[in-house]
From TrEMBL:
This is Urease accessory protein UreF. It comes from the Archaea. It comes from Haloarcula limicola. Gene3D superfamilies: Urease accessory protein UreF (1.10.4190.10). PANTHER family: UREASE ACCESSORY PROTEIN F. GO terms for molecular function: nickel cation binding. Keywords: Chaperone, Nickel insertion. The keyword Ligase does not apply. The keyword Chloroplast does not apply.
Length: 229
């Protein structure tokens, strides 16, 4: 990749990016509340499940489709990937969180980058033709920035894991060293998730993590919540 694309990838992977992902735990809060995740090892296993069973077969597939469509200037294909991802995401909180973060990222990119693709995509989101999921917006943004698809998928995995590690530090007695150890241990899992997504089409977008979906539904009805999901 060019230096400009590499630096753009660093920017998009930075927790400083103002898209609100620090407000979500994607069900982790309920796993902690139910004593299903009590320590660093439990957390590592859960994050590996997220990567293998949800992020890889769903978000990364949509990201790849949006990445390719953006490079071709095909907004209709971006919207198709967006709608498909929303359709296979069962938990209402997960859909809402992904769409809120996606809206913020799309707004930010429109402010920073002059692109007809972003404008047309935003119009589609405004009219209800596209949900505006974060992974799809990220796919379009990385495609337009010249970041290659594999790097964009790794970026997505890294951002997802670091976001949940940040949430875990507020929910568990998890030190910075433990968080870094988990992040390091999950590198092969991230790579596997990226490779698994490479040959999938939108019709092969098949996330399957029933316990995550059940606890996400429980979290929606929880009386006390630190995170919105």
């Amino acid at each position: 990749m060019s230096d400009a694309a590499t630096l753009e990838a660093f920017r998009l992977a930075d927790s400083f990016l103002p898209v609100g992902t620090y407000t979500v735990s994607y069900g982790l809060e309920q796993f902690v509340a139910d004593d299903r995740v009590t320590d660093a090892e439990d957390l590592r296993v859960l994050l590996a499940t997220y990567l293998r069973r949800q992020v890889g077969p769903a978000e990364l597939v949509a990201l790849r489709a949006a990445h390719a469509a953006a490079r071709e200037g095909d907004v209709d294909a971006i919207c198709a990937a967006d709608r498909r991802l929303a359709a296979v995401t069962l938990a209402a909180e997960f859909r809402e969180s992904a769409q809120n973060s996606g809206a913020r990222l799309l707004s930010l990119q429109r402010d920073l980058r002059d692109s007809d693709i972003f404008e047309r995509y935003a119009d589609a989101a405004d009219t209800g033709d596209a949900p505006g999921n974060y992974a799809v917006v990220l796919g379009a943004a990385t495609g337009l920035a010249g970041i290659d698809a594999r790097a964009a998928c790794l970026l997505c995995c890294h951002g997802f894991v670091t976001g949940l590690l940040g949430a875990a530090q507020r929910l568990l007695s998890l030190g910075h060293t433990d968080a870094q150890r988990i992040l390091d241990d999950l590198r092969p899992v991230m790579t596997d998730a990226v490779e698994d997504s490479a040959d999938r089409t939108l019709s092969d977008m098949t996330p399957f993590a029933p316990l995550v979906d059940v606890l996400a539904a429980d979290h929606e009805r929880a009386q006390r919540r630190l995170f919105v999901s």
